[in-house]
């Protein structure tokens, strides 16, 4: 027999996920407008989706390899490709069956560099989808998040409360001031428009709402409202239902990091343990991080 026929190259990645809805929730959380592209980075550690806008807002979704029931990585280095985030979410939704978890296989690349999706847990039918990819035309900006000092400037608040506070602060074209102060330990959100609106989270008054707080000096920065709102506008209902917490950290220069945790556990299993801060065991959650650059503000208090 002739062996001249070349065998197809092994794919960079073949993985299987047993709850497609968890992936849909995680990607929807970083979809703040209808037409949006994402850069996908593959590695032996998992899959990262990067979405950004105008160099002022960046979001990342981390799907660690532990989330997958199968993860076969054969690439050299870390392949990167671009994809339409909306198209990918719409495709994943076709695999999601209400009331039960659906298992899918993800393969990259296909014969024409596509991202291939296939259902693998049904004996009656198989759903198959191909998502066109592209070579990224931009390089993700370096958010360069560094600690603001020896003591972290951070707080953890119930995700529903954070979303409600930011939604309430909407003023057309406005900025939102976020201030942390150690005495009394509190977080203040302030919006200015036709009037002023201020929302305070007092650490010792309601520890069920503000579950953690770290601050050794008063700091204050302003952020464009539309960018701040993008960090919470699409928090999945599962996060709100589980009463989970979101962590907000101010880095050097006022760079804001907002972190959410989204469950990708199968809906058919018993409810996993969630601690008092709303954190689930790390093996079954997707990590979502937003980075928001502050506005220039000569009146900011950052001693």
Automatic annotation (TrEMBL):
Which subcellular locations apply to this protein?
Nucleus
Specify whether Cytoplasm is a keyword of the entry: no
Give me the Gene Ontology terms describing cellular component.
Answer: checkpoint clamp complex
Q: Name one Pfam family in it.
A: Rad1
The UniProt entry lists the main location of this chain as nucleus
User: What are the alphabetically sorted keywords of the record?
Assistant: DNA damage, DNA repair, Nucleus
Which GO terms fall under biological process for this protein? DNA damage checkpoint signaling; DNA repair
Q: Does the keyword Nucleus apply?
A: yes
Q: Which family does it belong to?
A: Belongs to the rad1 family.
- This one is known as Cell cycle checkpoint protein RAD1
């Amino acid at each position: 027999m002739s062996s001249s026929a070349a065998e197809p190259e092994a794919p960079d990645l073949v993985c299987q996920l047993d709850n497609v809805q968890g992936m849909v929730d995680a990607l929807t959380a970083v979809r703040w407008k209808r037409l949006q592209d994402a850069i996908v980075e593959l590695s032996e550690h998992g899959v990262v989706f990067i979405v950004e806008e105008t160099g002022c807002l960046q979001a990342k979704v981390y799907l660690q390899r532990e989330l997958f029931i199968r993860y076969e990585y054969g690439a050299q280095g870390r392949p990167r490709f671009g994809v339409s985030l909306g198209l990918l979410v719409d495709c994943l939704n076709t695999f999601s069956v209400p009331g039960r978890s659906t298992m899918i296989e993800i393969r990259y690349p296909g014969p024409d560099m596509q991202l291939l999706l296939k259902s693998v847990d049904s004996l009656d039918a198989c759903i198959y989808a191909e998502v066109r990819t592209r070579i990224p035309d931009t390089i993700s900006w370096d958010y360069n998040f560094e600690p603001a000092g020896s003591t972290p400037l951070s707080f953890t608040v119930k995700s529903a409360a954070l979303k409600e506070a930011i939604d309430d602060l909407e003023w057309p074209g406005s900025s939102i001031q976020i201030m942390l102060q150690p005495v009394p330990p509190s977080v203040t959100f302030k919006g200015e428009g036709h009037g002023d609106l201020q929302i305070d989270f007092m650490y010792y008054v309601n520890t069920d709402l503000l579950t953690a707080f770290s601050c050794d000096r008063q700091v204050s920065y302003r952020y464009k409202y539309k960018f701040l709102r993008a960090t919470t506008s699409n928090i999945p209902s599962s996060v709100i239902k589980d009463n989970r917490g979101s962590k907000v950290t101010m880095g050097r220069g006022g760079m804001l990091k907002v972190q959410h945790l989204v469950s990708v556990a199968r809906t058919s299993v018993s409810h996993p343990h969630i601690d008092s801060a709303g954190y689930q065991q790390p093996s079954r959650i997707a990590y979502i991080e937003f980075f928001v650059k502050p506005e220039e503000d000569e009146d900011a208090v950052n001693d």
